[in-house]
Design a protein that fits this description.
alpha+beta; 25% helix; globular; Alpha-D-Glucose-1,6-Bisphosphate, Chain A, domain 4; 9 strands
Length: 151
């Protein structure tokens, strides 16, 4: 059951868990899709220290005006290739994101993104729509990778 300030998103990709986990943890992949439509995330603006207590930071750039948005998080749990958990201590309430990679049949993987302690400003419909474009960009990128088809 979803609580206030809690959101769950599910997408199924025709790709293995290892590849999808790499996409979410390697700067060269993240730079290709991270952020909502209308933003870009240069590879030199991504910091990954993939261990519990390690940093996960991205600098998204608004493509129309060049304004920059930094996301600072700390990994809480890293279980390759099943699960990633990070928390954003600077966000009101300490928003936590859990990504679970669930292996399905036929080389498909369900990616479940669960967020808790989502502050009201990120809960607005416009913000949720923007987040969904991020998931769309991820699916489109995965679909370009050899041996993967997003759906």
């Amino acid at each position: 059951m979803t609580q206030p300030g809690e959101f769950t998103y599910r997408r199924v990709h025709r790709a293995g868990r290892e590849l999808l986990f790499d996409c979410m943890t390697k700067p060269e992949h993240l730079a290709r899709f991270w952020g909502p439509a209308g933003t870009s995330t240069p590879v030199d603006g991504i910091t990954i220290d993939l261990r519990p207590g390690g940093a996960f930071e991205t600098v998204m750039v608004n493509d129309s005006d060049g304004s920059r948005y930094t996301m600072r998080a700390v990994y809480v749990e890293v279980r390759r290739p099943e699960k990633l958990v990070w928390t954003e201590p600077d966000v009101e309430g300490g928003m936590t994101t859990t990504i679970t990679f669930v292996e399905l049949d036929d080389e498909r993987t369900e990616v479940v993104t669960h967020q808790t302690n989502v502050p009201p400003m990120f809960s607005r419909p416009e913000a949720r729509d923007g987040f969904l474009t991020s998931l769309d960009r991820f699916a489109a990128y995965v679909g370009t990778l050899p041996g993967a088809v997003s759906g």
